[in-house]
Write the structure tokens for this entry.
Amino acid sequence: MTRFSIINDDYLRPGDNIMILVTLENNGNTNLNDIQLTFVVPELDMRRRIGPFDLKKNKEITRLIILDIPYWAKPGYYNIRATASNGDVRRVKHREILIHN
């Protein structure tokens, strides 16, 4: 995962969507097959998985992922864990979000 950014993190509230832009880049010498992206916020019971898809060597792809914040979410700080993996390669990144009242 080259880049993982939250587009609308300025003011998130229960019931809102979190829009995540993620870019994967393959700088290796072989194609990466069957990549899956998984986004999890365990405290809010949020999980989204996309894929599998392939990424050819020396190529990059960008995907938009939307997570729904539950209406029952309490205000506070939460971590989004993003994982890109295909069984052979695994990369994990975290981003903190703040949910307001």
Notes: The chain has one domain: 3-99. The two ends are 32 Å apart (CA to CA).
